[in-house]
């Protein structure tokens, strides 16, 4: 694996580091010495450019990087990185270490983040190229500039689009039951409109993904604005004319729009460098923060308007929101060829088979789906538990508001955390937080403890949901029909959400609040076992983790 080299790739001021590199340059350093070196995370920073000092001419000998089997070579200033024998684009994750490509006035550098502690041991005299040290070593300033690469403008458009999606969802949750109660022929039918909304969301997810694969995301997002406008018109007429059937239709249109809008997080990653994909997903999901504030405000402010029936104006607000959604997506750039052109359709069962048969894809899907299911189940039951403890409704609402903020606020920096510690750690962290929340709920029976449990639950959902989405985009990036796999992912999430919506009250009756949390712990442990096995298998097969 290591080629013979008569010269070290750079000179170091530290004797210890220099000794390690002499060991590395040896044609056969031995497995133990090699393992010790890799564990030391003394990363190789080598600038393959004529402006950098170092071995003259093209570098033809591969050098081992601290990631277990990452090798790069450079020919005439062209940098290529191979991880476990597979070519990688600069910016992809290699093992738990992230590589990135930074450009200064001339050089191209490949940097691994664990090397930051080692940088001070090298020469501190700056070279004539800004941001570099002698011998082609990128300075800390260059490293930071590479990791501060800005997200494209379209990411912010999808952030706004996701905000509208989440606002409509929050408004629907707050209005559906009350509006249904006022129009339903019988009391037990009050939640039927909301049930049809979830049913439509579940049914539309996969066909929407197929349409995106054939027509491109932009056209589907533009078309999805129409159901939101129809929901506004139908909901307004339903409340004014006291029509329960029209109310059901309005919520079905809402379900169709929300189902399409959920793809904003995946659309934000199209054409984005691999290192920025987690940040793009994270930012788009953070649109829920706006919804957590704007949704309840719009619902309560427009609930009673003089001259209109209750909630008529609230439903009518969906019409201008649909127009705004159309305008936002009209400003979005055209789809990348990989998204909008010639899809390689697998079909529903073909995509489902791939999800089940590929451990990493299955882990990505279940991380988001089970994380969402546990969050949804315990969020609904927490309201019932607070009611059983005679906690005032206003206090319970405040606790849920803190929970929603905990769900979406971390999304502003979850992407950067993934870049720093890797997807493996973020998913493990999400599972751990979900388990911690359940343990808190089992042993806590006061308002403060339940609120704290809800906050931890929201954080766990954020890590599992964003981490699962980021992992899914990475492992399916070069697969045929990857947009369809995203559709299967969202459909499974919708099925889980529907099941928890229908079973929350039944599970509250038996096995009760504590029993439901214990079941959730068991599910999290199972997900954790799957994660360990999937990541271990990926490492053994020689793919980046």
TrEMBL record:
Protein keywords: Membrane, Transmembrane, Transmembrane helix
Keyword Transmembrane attached: yes
Lineage top rank: taxon: Bacteria
Domain annotation Major facilitator superfamily (MFS) profile: ranges: 352-545
InterPro entries: MFS, MFS_dom, MFS_trans_sf
Name of the featured protein: MFS transporter
Gene3D superfamilies in alphabetical order: MFS general substrate transporter like domains
Pfam families: MFS_1
Species in which this protein is naturally found: Lautropia dentalis
Membrane-traversing stretches: 156-181, 187-208, 220-238, 244-268, 280-298, 310-332, 352-380, 400-418, 425-443, 449-472, 492-510, 516-535
GO molecular function, one term: transmembrane transporter activity
């Amino acid at each position: 694996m290591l080629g013979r080299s008569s010269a070290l790739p750079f000179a170091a001021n530290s004797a210890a580091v220099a000794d390690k590199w002499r060991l590395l340059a040896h044609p056969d350093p031995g497995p133990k010495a090699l393992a010790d070196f890799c564990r030391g995370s003394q990363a190789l920073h080598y600038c393959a450019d004529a402006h950098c000092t170092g071995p003259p001419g093209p570098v033809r000998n591969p050098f081992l990087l601290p990631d277990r089997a990452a090798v790069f070579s450079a020919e005439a200033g062209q940098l290529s990185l191979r991880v476990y024998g597979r070519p990688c684009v600069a910016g992809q994750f290699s093992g738990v270490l992230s590589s990135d490509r930074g450009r200064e006035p001339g050089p191209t550098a490949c940097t691994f983040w664990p090397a930051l502690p080692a940088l001070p041991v090298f020469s501190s005299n700056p070279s004539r190229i800004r941001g570099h040290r002698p011998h082609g070593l990128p300075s800390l300033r260059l490293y930071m500039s590479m990791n501060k690469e800005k997200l494209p403008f379209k990411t912010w458009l999808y952030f706004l689009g996701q905000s509208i999606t989440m606002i409509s969802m929050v408004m629907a949750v707050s209005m559906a039951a009350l509006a249904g109660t006022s129009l339903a022929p019988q009391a037990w039918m009050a939640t039927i409109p909301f049930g049809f909304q979830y049913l439509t969301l579940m049914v539309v997810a996969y066909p929407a993904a197929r349409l995106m694969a054939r027509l491109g995301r932009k056209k589907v997002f533009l078309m999805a604005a129409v159901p939101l406008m129809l929901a506004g018109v139908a909901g307004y007429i339903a409340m004014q004319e006291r029509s329960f059937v029209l109310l059901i239709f309005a919520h079905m249109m809402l379900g169709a729009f929300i189902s399409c809008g959920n793809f904003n997080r995946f659309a934000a990653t199209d054409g984005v460098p691999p290192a920025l994909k987690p940040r793009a997903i994270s930012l788009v999901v953070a649109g829920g923060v706006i919804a957590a504030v704007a949704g309840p405000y719009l619902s309560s402010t427009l609930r009673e308007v003089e001259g209109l029936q209750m909630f008529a104006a609230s439903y009518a607000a969906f019409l201008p929101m649909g127009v705004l959604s159309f305008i936002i997506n009209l400003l979005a750039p055209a789809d990348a060829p990989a998204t909008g052109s010639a899809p390689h359709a697998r079909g529903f069962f073909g995509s489902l088979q791939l999800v089940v048969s590929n451990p990493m894809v299955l882990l990505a899907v279940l991380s988001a789906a089970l994380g969402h299911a546990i969050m949804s189940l315990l969020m609904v039951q927490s309201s019932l538990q607070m009611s059983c403890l005679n906690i005032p409704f206003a206090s319970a609402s405040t606790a849920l508001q803190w929970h929603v903020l905990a769900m979406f606020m971390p999304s502003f920096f979850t992407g950067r955390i993934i870049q720093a510690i890797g997807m493996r750690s973020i998913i493990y962290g999400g599972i751990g937080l979900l388990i911690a929340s359940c343990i808190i709920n089992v042993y806590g029976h006061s308002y403060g403890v339940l609120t704290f449990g809800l906050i931890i639950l929201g954080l766990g959902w954020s890590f599992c949901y964003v981490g699962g989405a980021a992992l899914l985009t990475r492992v399916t990036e070069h697969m045929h029909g990857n947009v369809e796999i995203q559709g299967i992912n969202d459909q499974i999430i919708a099925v889980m959400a529907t099941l928890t919506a229908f079973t929350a009250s039944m599970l509250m009756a038996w096995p009760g609040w504590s029993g439901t949390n214990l079941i959730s712990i068991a599910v999290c442990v199972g997900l954790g076992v799957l994660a360990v096995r999937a990541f271990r298998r990926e490492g053994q097969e020689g793919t980046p983790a």
